[in-house]
Design brief:
481 residues, alpha+beta, 6-stranded mixed sheet, 5-stranded antiparallel sheet
């Protein structure tokens, strides 16, 4: 019944998430000391950071590098039953390391035939350097450096900007670096690969290859994360293995997963000291992991931070029919894991509303955004939507067009176009007038030399005219008869 309730609660929470909440950091401060130099506590369900310490500072990953080794192997292996023969010649590099105590073995002998799956168990459970080199040589096409190049390419692809791998085992190398944030990205990706979690979280495993006669019949590999063992002082419910690492030059590292009440968490701790101030041997990586998980189990619950019924302002709406404004609310309810010692009233709401909104407006239209911040960190960005609809008033719309026309660019454009058309018209008129004057200009007479025939005709015409005149002159007056 409890499990069913947890599943139902998880489903309800997922339905209530209003936006993309991935990657947000709350970073609460616990009331106890974290000894590790780098730390990260992450809720895997919402990808929300609940605590971090120097999460972007670089440290050597040690055997945590084998998580990336497993990623490259799983992505390049078509059949986990593929056998690989152990070649002790590949182990010679271990003898040259500056810190031989950091090299861990799974008891794999020269000539052993082990499947890819068995080698993954040996590597992830015991930090076996033999297993990681055998896998790297096989999937690096006979070249370990080639395999390391694939590791770095994958880290870059995942967005790990502060991670560099120099070997697949994690043995000491000052150039091999990572961060708590980058290890979180790498581990989250590994958990999406089919067989990674089941292998990396197994408490123990016994190889089943046919050449076991060369080994002790009860040959078994046990996970180095002893927090899974109930006899361990730092055992806590829901704890799962994944990976541990020790580096003489730096300290202890651990990446572990835990689940309770339907919630899953990832804890990453880097560079935890080997000893306390008095020189006593300590397992601070486990102590820190235990403290963080106990803290989150006891003090974190899902709380409603912002309800979808909360009115966060009103916006003026132009040209509305019957209403000149509309109220806005969050698009959906926002819930998240919250520390019971932190007052939700300390969450700052930064509301940004759209300007110059005009009708029509439909209920549910996005009209702004609210940003939620805690201790200066953004924890969510949520859309604000209209609580009601506002219809367009045609009368207000056209009146607004008339009133605003003199203030718009269209008036200037209209004036410029009118002036241009007037200038063109005047130019055409002037051109037409000039052309008309050229057409009516009087033609100058052309004086041509008369032809001989025309001269004779003209002389005859004059002579005839003179004769007629003479006859007229010779007639007697009428009274003399």
């Amino acid at each position: 019944m409890k499990r069913i309730l947890s599943v139902c609660m998880s489903f309800l929470i997922l339905c209530c998430f209003c936006t993309d909440l991935r990657g947000h950091a709350l970073n609460f401060t616990p009331n106890f000391e974290i000894h590790s130099e780098g730390a990260l506590l992450l809720n895997l369900d919402t990808d929300t950071v609940l605590y971090q310490k120097n999460a972007d500072s670089q440290f050597m990953p040690g055997a945590l590098a084998q998580i990336m080794t497993a990623i490259v192997v799983l992505e390049n292996c078509q059949n986990l039953s593929t056998n690989i023969t152990a070649d002790s010649g590949l182990y010679t590099q271990f003898s040259t390391t500056e810190y031989p105590d950091d090299v861990l073995y799974a008891g794999i002998k020269d000539g052993d035939i082990l499947s890819v799956e068995e080698l993954l168990y040996a590597m992830l459970l015991t930090s076996s350097c033999e297993a990681s080199v055998l896998l790297a040589n096989h999937f690096g096409d006979g070249s370990v450096p080639n395999f390391v190049a694939k590791m770095n390419a994958k880290a870059k692809e995942l967005g790990c900007t502060k991670t560099n791998f120099t070997n697949p085992t994690g043995i000491y190398n000052s150039a091999q670096k990572t961060t708590a944030n980058d290890m979180a990205i790498i581990t989250k990706y590994a958990l999406t690969l089919g067989r990674f979690e089941s292998i990396a979280c197994a408490e123990s495993f016994s190889p089943y290859t046919p050449n076991l006669d060369r080994h002790n019949p009860d040959w078994t590999w046990t996970h180095t994360n002893t927090m899974m063992q109930t006899v361990n002082n730092y055992h806590i419910s829901g704890i799962k293995g994944i990976k541990t690492a020790n580096l003489s030059a730096q300290g202890r590292n651990i990446v572990t997963k835990a689940s309770k009440d339907g919630n899953s968490y990832l804890v990453i701790l880097l560079a935890a000291p080997f000893e306390d101030a008095e020189g006593n041997l300590r397992y601070y990586h486990q102590a820190d992991a235990y403290s963080l998980l106990k803290w989150v189990y006891e003090h974190f619950t899902y709380q409603t931070i912002l309800s979808d019924s909360t009115e966060l302002g009103q916006i003026k709406v132009e040209n509305g029919d019957g209403s000149d404004y509309v109220l806005v609310r969050p698009k959906q309810t926002f819930m998240t894991l919250w520390y019971d010692m932190a007052d939700t009233a300390s969450i700052v709401q930064e509301v940004s509303l759209d300007q110059n909104v005009s009708a029509p407006v439909n209920e549910g239209d996005k009209l702004g955004e609210v940003t939620l911040k805690f201790s200066g960190e953004v924890i969510a960005k949520i859309d604000l939507v209209a609580t009601s609809s506002v219809k367009l008033s045609s009368y207000k719309y056209y009146m607004a067009l008339i009133q605003h026309f003199p203030k718009t660019d269209w008036l200037l454009k209209a004036v410029l176009i009118s002036l241009l058309l007037c200038a063109i018209y005047i130019a055409l008129c002037v051109y037409s007038h000039i052309c008309h004057k050229q057409k009516i200009k009087p033609v100058q007479p052309v004086h041509l030399k008369p032809r001989a025939s025309e001269v004779k005709r003209e002389a005859a015409r004059k002579a005839s005219k003179e004769r007629k005149q003479q006859k007229t002159n010779r007639k007697p007056p009428a009274d003399s008869q």
